[in-house]
Design brief:
11 strands, globular, 10 helices, about 15% strand, about 50% helix
Length: about 425
């Protein structure tokens, strides 16, 4: 946006005289090339890294088992651009490489997550890491993503009262805090951004000996009416974060929709169509009713960015065809969002609140993107100049990034 303000002000200052006009064109060209390089460098944020789920299992016999999941992409120099480790690739890794990944996972968890049992204080679980599918699933299909699953078991001694975790400030990933009580997923789930602490789970009913009082302010292991609301808020924040700032691919698609027209009717028609479409597939995929391979979804998502941007250049009107295109691509974007919820195995109450909260968070993120773009260009009222200076250059830029990302994701999946 800073580039657009500079570009327009420079053009206004130099609109008279051929010499000044030439100077303007040179400035436009130089600035356009600069912003292109910056946005191409931003390819690193086109492929978000999954959160780190921390799941604690309390069977009710006085024991506890803690698991963590780490995606191997976290260890790459450019993790957001790196391909996922798929099941067919795992057997090709040397034992030395596997041992290195396991060591890196242990170091990442120690650096990014603090574990606390009250009143003992901070503890350091000695996790044993193995290669598995997400949520501990077996690696069966060619498209199954491999993660490093760490596991540590302990006994809940008499006197222990509460359990919580913290995402450290030096962490760059979100941490999911989830508890499974006697085989049932606790309805309250925390999504922790760097520097945040989870709620404290009451351990008094889960210890070998149940005498003693719970930690003040702790959450009951049996759940309460407030848990679904807490999960709703946690996933509302997570949904917003998946658009702003993490979802650069989604941001560019929304900007592509915005650039077609600033008039409220076509803009409202496109945004409503896109919102409805991705809400449908987000719900269906999260509920497990629809499943499409990431190898198909991810390239289409970034190809959709190029498609809407190219149409802005050659078909500058909101037609029924445009709405159909937005609807189809909205369905695909919903499948991409669903991964944030599908792997958590949420109970019914938390699934509904988490799904609704996440979806509202996504919509709030979209609204911020569109509002920012509208305010940044509001002062340029001349339609012809707006199209010549912003719509066409911006659409060319977005289309170029979309094509480049498509190539990268197809190559990585090949």
């Amino acid at each position: 946006m800073v580039f657009l303000f500079w570009l327009l002000s420079a053009t206004a200052r130099c609109r008279h005289g051929r010499r000044r006009h030439t100077m303007t064109l040179r400035r436009i060209h130089a600035a356009f090339c600069t912003i292109l390089l910056l946005l191409v460098a931003a390819v690193a944020w086109s492929h978000p890294i999954p959160d780190i789920p921390v799941r604690t299992f309390f069977p009710g016999d006085g024991t506890a088992r803690i698991t963590v999941e780490v995606d191997p992409r976290c260890f790459e120099d450019e993790p957001y651009a790196a391909p996922s480790l798929l099941a067919p690739i795992l057997p090709t890794l040397s034992e030395e490489r596997k041992a290195t990944l396991q060591r890196q996972a242990a170091e990442l968890v120690r650096r990014c997550i603090e574990f606390t049992i009250e009143p003992v204080g901070r503890i350091q679980p000695d996790f044993t890491f193995r290669f598995a599918g997400r949520s501990g699933a077996p690696l069966a299909g060619a498209e199954d993503v491999v993660v490093l699953t760490g596991e540590w078991s302990t006994t809940l001694a008499s006197g222990l009262t509460g359990w919580h975790i913290r995402s450290t400030k030096e962490s760059t990933l979100s941490v999911i805090f989830q508890n499974i009580i006697r085989g049932e997923v606790h309805p309250r789930i925390a999504v922790l951004f760097p520097g945040e602490q989870s709620f404290t789970l009451d351990l008094t009913d889960l210890r070998a000996s149940q005498a003693g009082a719970a930690t003040a302010g702790s959450v009951s292991a049996t759940g309460s009416a407030k848990d679904s609301w807490s999960t709703f808020i946690a996933y509302l924040r997570q949904g917003f974060n998946h658009v702003v700032p993490e979802g650069l691919d989604h941001i560019l698609f929304v900007l592509g929709i915005f650039l077609l027209s600033r008039e409220w009717k076509p803009l409202l028609a496109q945004v409503t169509t896109f919102t409805f479409a991705h809400s449908v597939t987000l719900a269906l995929a999260t509920l497990g009713l629809v499943h499409v391979s990431a190898a198909v979804v991810e390239p289409i998502i970034v190809a959709s960015i190029a498609a809407v941007a190219i149409e802005n250049i050659f078909r500058p009107r909101c037609t029924r065809w445009r709405l159909l295109v937005v609807f189809v691509f909205g369905l695909i974007h919903g499948l991409g969002f669903a991964g944030a919820l599908r792997d958590l195995d949420l109970p019914t109450g938390s699934l509904v609140s988490g799904l609704v909260g996440f979806n509202i968070g996504v919509e709030c993120g979209q609204l911020v993107v569109i509002t920012t773009a509208f305010l940044a260009t509001l002062w340029l009222q001349d339609a012809a100049r707006y199209r010549r200076w912003i719509v066409v250059p911006g659409s060319i830029l977005i289309a170029g990034i979309g094509v480049w990302w498509t190539i990268l994701r197809v190559v990585h999946r090949a």
